[in-house]
Amino acid sequence: ESVKHEVVEILATMPKLTARLYAGGRHVYSLMVPGDLVDERLHDYLRGCGPRGDPAPALVCRLTPKEYVIDGMRVFLSEANGQLVVREANGGTAPLREFLRQRMPLPRAAPQQASPHQSGQQQMPQHAARQQMPPQQAPRQPMSPPR
């Protein structure tokens, strides 16, 4: 029971970490597990994000085979018809590329009635950390993963 509680607490920190990584233009990916075909395919995708212009997540953490935290969201990855497919906790599925595109922050119009010091103090829901980042923190173009 206490281990489950600790896991929940750790996972709750992921959206905030993701927002900080995007703000700093950084990426953190768990190491590739040789022999795990899904993990190898995922790392192939991550290495090619920048050159292909595909969205690059800021945070990828492998939990178990086929189970990951991607940008603060716990998901399951599988391969179907030659592409990686994400299954979310709610059962929704999407190709990895589309999953990431849907979650990329969009530039917004000028903030309404928010001072710069207020925006940094607002607490965001876990699932909305990426969507709520101010435009100056949102990546303008996909960034290539570290090598």
UniProtKB/TrEMBL annotation:
Q: Where is the composition biased (Low complexity)?
A: 109-141
Write the protein's name.
Uncharacterized protein
Domain of life of the source: Eukaryota
**Where are the residues of the annotated region Disordered?**
101-147
